[in-house]
Amino acid sequence: MTTGTVTLGPLQHADVPRCREIELELFPGEDPWSENAFHSELNNGHYYLGAYADEELVGYAGLAATPYEASVHTIAVVRHWQGRGVGKMLLRKLLERADEIGVPVFLEVRTDNEPAIAMYLAHGFEHLGLRRRYYQPSGADAYTMGRSAKSV
Q1: 3-class DSSP state of 68
Q2: Which residues form the N-acetyltransferase domain (predicted)?
């Protein structure tokens, strides 16, 4: 169901099995993140959020930051919630965190993911380069994108 409202909160280790399910749904034919990868990200103290609708995890996003730069590691929203602003909510929260630190933000995105590219461009990202065959095993290309540091 897609009723109710979406709230954001810290992603928990208990959410990891659902994250894996979402990865498998959204990225068939690729090398989706394992549960261990999610646990590692959380254990390393990276900034991860969950998007919850009626207490169900419908999306997640993660940011790794140093004192010099931040990197969006992932943003994913289940298909039946896409196009409803959930990805935007998650991205804005990640950018708020980067802005608190005052660092530029970088990411990679599939060159054929037009909705995500449009969202990033609308939030101040620019194309920086191209990584050929970045996604495996499909060999899909990725754009590298970046957004300048902003201070709050």
Answers
A1: coil
A2: 6-150
Tens of pLDDT, residue by residue over 10-54, are 999 999 999 999 999 998 877 889 999 999 999 999 999 999 998
Fold classified for 6-147: Aminopeptidase (3.40.630)
CB atoms within 10 A of CB 112: 10
Write b or e for each residue in 4-14: b if 16 or more Cβ atoms lie within 10 A of its Cβ, otherwise e: eebebeebeee
CA distances, 90 to each of 32, 77, 107 (Å): 20, 9, 14
Give the Cα separation of 86 and 65 in Å (integer).
22
Inter-CA distances, 9 with 1, 4, 76, 144, Å: 20, 16, 15, 27
Peptide bond into 137 cis (omega under 30): yes
> What is the per-residue burial (b if ≥16 Cβ within 10 Å, else e) of 116-142?
bbebbeeeebeeeeeeeebbeeeebeb
CA atoms within 13 A on the CB side of 123: 26
pTM beyond 0.85: the answer is yes
